[in-house]
Structures are given as structure tokens and as C-alpha cells.
Amino acid sequence: MLSLTSFCIVLVMVSHTQSGANFEEEQYGIIYATDCEVCKLVTKEVAERLQSSDSSDVIETGYSIDGQKKKTKYNKSELRLVEILDDVCKGMLDYRIHKERKDSTRFAKKMSQTFETLHNLVNKGVEVELGIPQELWDEPSAEISHLKTQCERFIEDNEDTISEWYYGEQEDSLKEKVCNKILEDPKCLNDQNEENVKSKIPKDGEKPRKKLKGDSAVNNRSEL
Length: 224
Description:
By secondary structure, the chain is mainly alpha-helical. 44% of the residues lie in helices and 7% in strands.
């Protein structure tokens, strides 16, 4: 049983974490992935890796009672699942944050419209100053770096459910099996795939500024 002191410490830690997240959002526009977004993205990545590793191969694992090596279909092997779960969270770093979008499609693997515009300006010889070296423009933002950590925690917390689906009949998709089970608010699961979403483009007649500096440009990479 938790003592009153222990309860207060836990409460303070939770409050501190929430206030820290609110501060980052207010000061820098950093909005970390929600539980729904994490579940959607991670299950999508796992499913895609399973599809790309689909094979009819038979592998030998361990030994049976008679001393013969066991033969197992790779598609249902523990090896395949372990390899994918060990590697999947690295794939989160391939995503980019699209600040112009407000739903879960803000996480997408293609370059954001903002950075695409900035790169085009630089290629045309326009001086663009963001307060950080150009070689760091394409480095993962705060949201993406944290997404990798969120993915690792998600895999750890839900490995049993993922395994149950993997070894089962897979009548539902992995996303449906896991996300509908654990999420209180699964609304983001209905957002259309990010590949089908087009970012907002400048209206006719709008021209980008020729030079961007300091606070008049972007104070932080995370705002792009």
C-alpha cells in the first residue's frame, strides 16, 4: 500500500511531467505523439515489416527429443517476430513532423512542405537563416526523437498482445487487435493515410520572402 508521502511524490512527478510538456508546447510548439498516434504508427511499421519479410522458407531451430533439429515455418517463427520488434523503433527516425497538419498525418516519412520550400529557396541561392546550421535541418525533431522512445515503451508494454496476434489467426489487422484493445480514445485510427494527404501550398500570387532571419523565421526546428 502506498503511503501518503509516496502518493504525493508520484502526484508531483506526474504534474511536473505534464507541466513540462505544456511548457514545451507553449514555448516551442512541440507536441509529442499521443497514445493513439504511437499505436497507429508502431503497428503500421510492424505490419509493413511483416509483409516485406513474408517467406515460405522453413528454418531449423533447436533440437527435438530425438535429437533432430526442429523445423519451423519462418512466417510463424519467433525469430522473425523478434527481429522485427528489435528493429522497428529505429524506423521511427525516418518520420518527419508536418506542423501544417493537425491530425495523426502530421507524422509522415516525406519531407514537410515547410522544409521542402526552404531547401528550394537555398537551391535558388536565397539566404535562409534559421539559427541552426543547414546540415542539421534534416535531423530528427524533438517530436521524432521522442517518438522512438515512445515506440520502445509501447513494444515493451504490448509485446504479449502483439505476439498473441502474430501466432494467432490474424483475423483482424494488428492495428485493430492492439489499438482497439488498449486505447481509451482511438479516434486517430480513422485518419486517412499520410501518403494520401497533401500539405497546404501557397495560394496563387503568394511569394516566399527572399530572406528569413532570426525570430522572423523559425526559432526552433521543431516548429517546422
